[in-house]
Design brief:
By secondary structure, the protein is an alpha/beta fold. It has helices at 10-20, 59-68, 72-89, 102-105, 107-119, 140-153, 166-176, and strands spanning 24-32, 40-50, 56-58, 95-98, 127-132, 156-160, 181-183, 187-189. Strands 1, 2, 3, 4, 5, 6, 7 and 8 form an eight-stranded mixed sheet that branches. The longest helix is centred in the middle third of the chain and has 18 residues, at 72-89.
Length: 190
């Protein structure tokens, strides 16, 4: 897996096989408030893949390829299921996952995410969906609508690299102004 070119389509089949064989999991990294480093806001779930030889690979090995190929939603749907399962099994946890921007740029991809959350809406208040400003949005209104739907379901939204998301943040803040927090790495949680 490490020897593959970033744009090698085999990344997709490797991840799909790992999902089918239950070899995708996650580790949890604590995200702290910037004004109170002792305060843990949530646990960010970072995917890892165990290959067929039992070797574990961090997200940095396979997620960039999925994103470059436009296939990150395949992993995101599976990871969201795992995160929701973890929330269901521990009623005290608050967990988050960094979704690819492809999920809010494509109505079909977003529908899969939204439907998973809606099916277990009782967990939404403890779910943080994190997005980074890696790519520009062709349709900012679609992105705003998708994120607003997630907030309406009860999820919290974390936006990293918020300077590239200024318009989206302003639009969301108008509707959800009451719940904005700054956390480490200049991430905004709404």
């Amino acid at each position: 897996m490490v020897d593959l070119d970033l744009l090698d389509e085999r990344h997709v089949s490797i991840v799909q096989e790992a999902i089918a064989e239950d070899r995708i999991g996650f580790i949890v990294q604590s995200i702290h408030a910037i004004d109170d480093p002792a305060q843990v806001l949530y646990g960010e779930c970072l995917p890892h893949l165990t290959d067929q030889d039992g070797i574990e690979h961090a997200d940095a090995v396979f997620v960039p390829a999925l994103e470059a190929l436009g296939e990150a939603p395949v992993l995101d749907r599976h990871m969201l299921k795992l995160v929701l399962d973890a929330l269901e099994s521990n009623s005290l946890s608050v967990l988050g996952y960094s979704l690819s921007g492809d999920n809010i740029s494509d109505p079909g991809s977003w529908a899969h995410i939204r439907d998973q959350i809606a099916a277990r809406s009782e967990l939404a208040s403890r779910l943080v969906l994190k997005f980074t400003g890696i790519q520009p949005f062709a349709d900012a209104a679609l992105a705003i609508n998708s994120l607003s739907e997630a907030r309406d379901l009860g999820c919290r939204i974390a936006i990293d690299d918020h300077l590239s998301w200024t318009g989206i943040i302003c639009a969301l803040a108008r509707k959800h102004w009451h719940s904005t927090t700054l956390c480490e790495n200049s991430c905004i949680i709404m």
